[in-house]
Amino acid sequence: MSKVRILRYVENFKEIYDGSPWYGDNIVTKIGNLTNDTAFTRPVQGMHSVAEVVSHMTYWRQSLISRLKGDSTFKASVDSEDNWKDLVRLKAMGWDTVRNALAESQEELIRLLSQQSDDILDKEYSDGSTYDYLIRGVIGHDIYHSGQIGLIRKFVSQ
């Protein structure tokens, strides 16, 4: 059983999260030293806070985690109240909890993906959608929102 492709994805997740991506700072660097106030600040009306983005990233990672665990009942949805949790709810959770949930999702993703072979990548998790598609989607989503976090931090620090 080959694991070449799946291990490449594992390395992608590691690089984006706490490695040395070629495009700049990793996620841990971008969120690591934020205070509660900074994490929950919306710098401009209509723009999300870092905490909202981190929670949103964790929510969509859960879709992949659930599927890798064999649970097909979790269906991430743009219409879910968990997709973009409101600030009141997030503040009640606290920044450490929000940040730690992302860290836990990272550990779980790495563990679950590392247990797989390349065979899973061509399997469908839903009609017409393969695990390869889902994994690439979560990686792209993480990169996109990593850039968004960087932008939000620049606005907040002005």
What class do helices, strands and sheet pairing give? mainly alpha
Q: According to CATH, what is the topology? A: Four Helix Bundle (Hemerythrin (Met), subunit A)
Cα separation of the termini: 52 Å
Report the portion of residues in β strands: under 5%
Name of the CATH architecture:
Up-down Bundle
Number of strands: 2
CATH class: Mainly Alpha
In helices, the fraction of residues equals 55-70%
Describe the strand arrangement of the main beta sheet, using strand numbers. Answer: 1-2
Radius of gyration: 16 Å
Q: Superfamily at the CATH H level?
A: dinb family like domain
Compute the average pLDDT.
94
Low-confidence stretches: none
Overall geometry comes to: globular
Number of continuous helical runs: 7
Order of helices and strands: HHHHHHEEH
Let me know the largest β-sheet.
Answer: 2 strands, antiparallel
Number of domains: 1
Structure, described:
This protein is mainly alpha-helical and 158 residues long. It has a single domain (4-156), classed as dinb family like domain (Four Helix Bundle (Hemerythrin (Met), subunit A)). 61% of the residues lie in helices and 3% in strands. The protein has 7 helices and 2 strands. Strands 1-2 form a two-stranded antiparallel sheet. A hairpin with a 2-residue loop joins strand 1 (124-126) and strand 2 (129-130). Helix 1 runs antiparallel to helix 6 (95-114), helix 4 runs parallel beside helix 6 and helix 4 runs antiparallel to helix 7. It is globular and about 50 Å long. The mean pLDDT is 94.
